């Protein structure tokens, strides 16, 4: 069944907020474009015209939108986990924040969106924005990152930068700004090329969080892809999970050459990179690791370890760190 965009009747069904284009709320002009049809995470997605009132449900989606210059077509955002990238802050400050975490169904509908976008499945939970199928019944296309589909069989199981660029192409195509999408992709590709270092057998432990139980990077995630890109190997690349729970004894046995530390901003025990370094130097098991004794640490923003436009920062930080340690 063909999906339609918000009409006067649907505005009434969605409750408060009013439709774009009503008196006193003229929508910004958008370029003419054909309808876009995608299969997104196993569901058909029909977008009849470039959206004018998009809602993003968490920060990664927000920053992709803003990087494409689409801030004037956003009716709301939510779930900021880290300080917004400085170059995007002026545009971000103009977008209404619907909730500190995920907005409710009612809050999303009150914003009268004509497109909803998230990079995490949890955003479409019943106690958050609600299932994508429910939004589709209201004529609101809802996009979900292919890395985080509701059904694992529909998802892109292994992260690659090419797959991330595919998501950027999807979004830029939906909004009729395909050329902006290609510019953003080319910029990211140039940065990735500059991050590459000569191939070596350097082993990297990607230490994300936890002190009693450390969570480290396994197979298939951003750290695994970055390790290969910079000519190193992931010390736990043989683990089936993307973020397995490790133990310090096994880490000591593997004795990685370099430890990549996630610098997390949430403020929990051992979250910051410095807190991790302090712990590793004090813990009897880890203090004797070659990387700890020699101070072979590379600090990476924690947010760059999830699929997003920030993932290139992880490659840049690790590449620069390995080049510095090789001097």
- Annotated CATH homologous superfamily of the largest domain: Nitrogenase molybdenum iron protein domain
Number of domains: 2
Tally of DSSP β-strands: 12
Task: Write the H/E string, N to C.
Answer: HEEEHEHEHEHEHHEEHEHEHHEH
Widest β-sheet, arrangement of strands: 5-4-3-6-7
- Which word captures the global form? elongated
What average pLDDT do the residues reach? Answer: 90
Major sheet: 5 strands, parallel
Write the layout of secondary structure elements.
Blueprint: H1 8-14, E1 36-40, E2 43-47, E3 54-56, H2 59-67, E4 74-78, H3 89-92, E5 97-99, H4 105-110, E6 115-118, H5 132-137, E7 142-144, H6 161-174, H7 178-195, E8 203-209, E9 215-216, H8 222-229, E10 233-234, H9 248-254, E11 258-263, H10 273-282, H11 290-294, E12 297-301, H12 311-325
Parallel strand pairs: 3-4, 3-6, 4-5, 6-7, 8-10, 8-11, 11-12
Antiparallel strand pairs: 1-2, 8-9
Helix pairs in contact: 6-7, 7-12, 8-12
Keywords: Signal
Domain Fe/B12 periplasmic-binding: 53-327
Protein name: Iron complex transport system substrate-binding protein
């Amino acid at each position: 069944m063909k999906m339609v965009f918000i009409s006067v009747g649907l505005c009434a069904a969605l409750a408060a907020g009013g439709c774009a284009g009503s008196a006193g709320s003229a929508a910004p002009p958008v370029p003419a474009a054909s309808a876009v049809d995608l299969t997104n995470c196993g569901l058909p997605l029909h977008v009849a015209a470039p959206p004018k009132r998009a809602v993003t449900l968490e920060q990664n989606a927000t920053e992709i939108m803003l990087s494409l210059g689409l801030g004037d077509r956003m009716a709301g955002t939510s779930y900021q986990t880290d300080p917004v990238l400085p170059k995007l802050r002026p545009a971000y400050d103009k977008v209404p924040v619907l909730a500190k975490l995920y907005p409710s169904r009612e809050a999303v509908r009150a914003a009268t969106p004509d497109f909803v976008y998230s990079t995490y499945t949890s955003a479409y939970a019943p106690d958050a924005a609600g299932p994508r199928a429910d939004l589709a019944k209201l004529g609101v296309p809802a996009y979900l990152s292919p890395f985080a589909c509701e059904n694992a069989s529909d998802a892109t199981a292994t992260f690659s930068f090419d797959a991330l660029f595919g998501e950027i192409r999807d979004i830029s195509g939906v909004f009729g700004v395909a050329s902006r999408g290609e510019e953003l992709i080319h910029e990211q590709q140039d940065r990735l090329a500059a991050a590459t270092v000569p191939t070596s057998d350097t082993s990297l432990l990607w230490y994300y969080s936890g002190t009693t139980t450390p969570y480290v990077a396994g197979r298939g995630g951003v750290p695994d892809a970055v390790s290969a890109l910079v000519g190193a190997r992931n010390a736990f690349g043989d683990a089936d999970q993307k973020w397995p729970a490790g133990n310090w004894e096994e880490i000591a046995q593997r004795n990685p050459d370099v430890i990549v530390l996630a610098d997390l901003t949430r403020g929990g025990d051992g979250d910051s990179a410095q807190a991790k370094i302090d712990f590793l130097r004090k813990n009897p098991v880890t203090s004797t690791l070659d990387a700890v004794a020699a101070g072979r640490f590379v600090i990476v923003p924690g947010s760059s370890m999830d699929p997003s436009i920030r993932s290139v920062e992880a490659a840049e930080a690790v590449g620069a760190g390995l080049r510095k340690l090789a001097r």
